[in-house]
Amino acid sequence: MRGMDRNETTWGILGALDREVALLRAGMRDVREELALGTVFAFGTLRGRRVAVACCGVGKVNAAMCATWLLCARQCGLIVNAGIAGAIGQGLRTLDVVVSRELCFHDQDPVMLKYFPKRRFFEGDPALLALCRRACARPGVLRGAAYREGRIATGDRFVADRATRERIVADCAPDCVEMEGAAIAHAAFAAGKPCLVIRTMSDCADDATNVTYDDFLERAADQSARIVLAMLEEGCA
Predict the structure, then answer these.
(1) Which of 7, 86, 96, 113 could make a disulfide contact with 146, Cβ separation 3.0–4.6 Å?
(2) CA–CA separation, 152 vs 175, rounded Å?
């Protein structure tokens, strides 16, 4: 992305849950809040960067609305979505990290490919991927978790049973599944702005999800937020 290393670029940062943006909001300075689309957007500085941070809420529509507003109405130069996901890819465990090499919708009817944007996959921005890679290589950022650049699948369903998991694997073979990322990437694609989605695994999107999700939600959300903080610092270095 051209100009990503310029301090004047405002980073739009979204999480679906309050916990996913809690560490980011706590570290912000000179905060100004604005209410739009039923969402509180916080504008300020974080680790030397200008940022706009919001909890967009769960699901594709909420995520796309907030991403579009930040990118178009408030002219953020890029958007990062950080949060949790269910692990599907082979070898992934809770608290491992998947970053969006590409994203897709697991609940999209094929007929939608006939209409704008006429694509199934949205690629993660290469410059943001490289920045994330460097950030995650910093000592203490991943805290022993595995790092993977892979495919993230999005849909308006909380995947918590093996049958749904197997259907998604057969359809698009993602590394993890969640409810917002591809919608944010779709909005960024339409706006012509860079996008990256960062997910820490809170569960394995199977019959045990309702137990492991509650156990790991906070740790997984904080892990993704720490990666964003490291990216902001790395970009200023």
Answers:
(1) 96
(2) 6
Amino acid found at 80: V
Query: Are 121 and 185 contacting, i.e. CB atoms less than 8 angstroms apart?
Result: no
What does the pLDDT look like over 122-164, one tens digit per residue? 999 999 999 999 999 999 999 999 999 999 999 999 998 989 9
Q: Which residues are catalytic?
A: 20, 203
Q: Which residues of 69-83 are buried (b: 16+ CB within 10 A; e: fewer)?
A: bbbeeeebbbbbbbb
Q: Which letter does DSSP use for residue 110 in this model?
A: G
Q: To which residue do tokens 């990290």 refer? A: 97
Q: What is this structure's pTM?
A: 0.94
CB 24 within 8 A of CB 229: yes
Q: What is the number of residues in the chain?
A: 237
